[in-house]
Amino acid sequence: MEGKLIGNRYEVIQKIGTGGMATVYKAKCILLKRFVAVKVLKPEFTNDEEFVKRFRVEAQAAASLSHPNIVSIYDVGKDDNVHYIVMEYIDGITLKEYIKTNGPLPWKEAVNIAAQICSAMDHAHRNHIIHRDIKPHNIILTKDGIAKVTDFGIARAVDSSTITMVGNTMGSVHYSSPEQARGGFIDEKSDIYSLGIALYEMTTGKVPFDGESPVAVALMQLQEEPKPPAVRNPDIPSGLNDIIMKAIRKDPSQRYQSAAHMLSDLNLVLRQPYADFAEPISYNDSPTIKIGSFSEKIASKSDKQNQNDYWKRENDMKKNSIVEEEENQNEKKKDKLTLWLAVITSIFLVGIFAFISYKLLMPSLFPDENFIVGNYVGKNIEDVRNELKDSGIVVKENRVFDDNYNKNIIIAQSIEPGQPIKRGSMTTLVLDVSDGPEMITIPDLRGADYRVAEGDLKKLGLVVKIQEEFSDKIGKDLVVRTEPEKDQKVRKGETVVIFRSLGPELRTVIVPKLIDLTRDEARRLILDNGLTVGSFFPKDVVSEVAKVVKQEPQAGETVPEGTKVDLYFEDAEANTPQPTVSQRNDFSYTLPLSDPDNYEDKIEVVVEIIPSDTRKPERILNRKINKDMFPVEVRVPVPVNGTTEIIVYYDNVKYLTDLISSP
Question: Which region among 219-223, 308-312, 432-436, 561-565 has the lowest average model confidence (pLDDT)?
């Protein structure tokens, strides 16, 4: 699949994960130039028309969700026989991997993660979408600690920890609610149960129910009560323990009735860790027990034996109760008066309760038929969302970046203020909500080619300025640093400075005059000026008191730092015949530059000559010259009736040699 172009738009780069029904690839959208995650349905499911239809319909429903804690779905399609979903690409790890790596999380961190998941669930539930498979495997944590819920609205099946009942798919059994285990009705409270199990695992490092097989775990979900998380981890405050235990109650009516209510308690427990969040559980005196089809199918011989034991105990209890009834018959007669008083009191209390219920519920049961849209621009979405929810209005939030509004402030609405909406008509009010200014994180560009770095920053919507500086550690044309520095956040459109390396700075010095100095004096002066001592002439016979009679390079020349200086002493002059210098005439010579693009703005130019009368090299020019000053004229001495050879160096590389003859 790698390298394949899906839908003529998504270029597959590499596989990043696989599941029971699909494989996920990292890809690049060639149209929008961004990375995406592409989930491809496995070939064995492509021929199941009912499965494919459900796959597409539910994926399209999930695509309608827009929430910062939900992985966005961009596209759904089919290419030949490949069914795919294009999603937001998240660079992070799953919550399951995070728990395995770190063990039990600090309780405040666990609450923060759970609150983000709960907020995402609340958004989905208000859009009539139930996840059905909330578990740490489906939660991705970004590098910034943001939790992202994935696989919204897609039924998951076909793996070792998932079971199917009567054509309905249920999630992983460790996180499935009891009603999922028995194949019953599933609603928002099933997701709340799964989140409670995930929060239990975050705080203790373990799930409350575990067994050798999925069936064994499902039985535990149906029959056993979990050990309170505070027993396994004493660091968990009592308030958080109450919230978890309430979320994972067996009876859905005893759990949180909405994700919004659970989110409110999660936010409150951060401020009041030891508050009382537990609510008393009410039981019927004579409950009717229904044995679901799931329980009947998995019942074993041991279960039947337990039932026989149960009825035997019931018969014994009945016999004992008959004896007790006869013994207490007289006492019951005495309690008749008390019973009548209790009945009268109960009737009185029921009447008061009915009156209060009538006053509170009648306005909400029979509201006005039309709702008048208000002006919500400039208000906080949290306040408006609660107001519209209470009024039964369907709201869709469209998150946009905006430089003029703070985050979570409404900047536009699809229906003008004052317009009526018929309640229950499913008319959607679209609110554009600000995410604040779009902030760009500066990437780490150190050591990259400055031209590539410039292009990357421009693609992010930033303005780039190049500034040059010398560097002894970073090679030429590579990025030394940026300003602002890496990982800092800036607004889109702001200026970022790239510092381009010129390589090590080439320093030059002026050669001092060394004539008439002794050997030690000349050596000290050479080193003090940043130069290097070269050779002595004549070799091995220079005395400490001998004086310099000649030096190369000559005094006053500008040379690179560290250049070697050769010294000639008087002994050498006495024993070496000096060449005879004949009369010379100066001629003008033009230094060309035929390939200026290969050089920087300044070129180090060195010109040496070898006259025919002495046959000894002489340097007539050594300096940096601006590139735009070429061609350059130099004066070259030529012996009368002789010649002079010219050698030209640009940036320490020989550029040309030439010969000038005396006319």
Answer: 308-312
47-61, 519-533, 588-602, 610-624: least confidently modelled range: 47-61
Burial of 618 (0-12, 13-18, 19+ CB in 10 A): middle
Type and span of the H or E element at 221: helix 214-223
Beta-carbon count within 10 A of 40 CB: 22
Q: At residue 332, does pLDDT exceed 80?
A: no
> Which residues lie closer than 8 Å to 565 by C-beta, 6 or more apart?
511, 514, 526, 531, 532, 533, 534, 551, 552, 553
Exposure string of 100-130, with b = 16+ CB inside 10 Å and e = fewer, is eeeebbebeebbbbbbbbbbbbbbbbbbebb
Strand-pairing partners, residue 464, are 496
Phi, psi of 245 (to 5 degrees): -65, -35
Per the CB < 8 A criterion, the answer to whether 98 and 200 are in contact is: no
* Exposure letters 411-421 (e unless 16+ CB within 10 A, then b): bebebeeeeeb
Spatial contact of 431 and 384, defined as CB atoms under 8 Å apart: yes
φ, ψ (nearest 5 deg) of residue 626? -60, 140
What angle do the packed helices 259-271 and 107-126 form, to 10 degrees?
160
> Which of the following is catalytic: 122, 133, 191, 265?
133
487 is catalytic: no
Give how far the C-alpha of residue 176 lies from the chain's centroid of Cα atoms, to the nearest Å. 29
Judged against a pLDDT cut of 50, whether residue 325 lies above it is answered with no
Cα 107 from Cα 391, distance rounded (Å): 36
486 with 446: CB under 8 angstroms? yes
- Please determine, for residue 39, whether its predicted confidence score (pLDDT) is greater than 70: yes
Q: What is the pLDDT of residue 424?
A: 62
Distance of CA 299 to the CA centre of its chain: 48
Tokens of 30: 């060639």
Which are the contacts of 162, defined by CB distance < 8 A and separation ≥ 6? 20, 156, 169, 170, 171, 172, 173, 214
Contact yes or no for 21/58 (Cβ under 8 A): no
List the one residue out of 457, 358, 370, 376 whose CA is nearest residue 419: 370
Q: Are strands 632-639 and 564-569 parallel, antiparallel or unpaired?
A: unpaired
What's the whole-model pTM score? 0.44
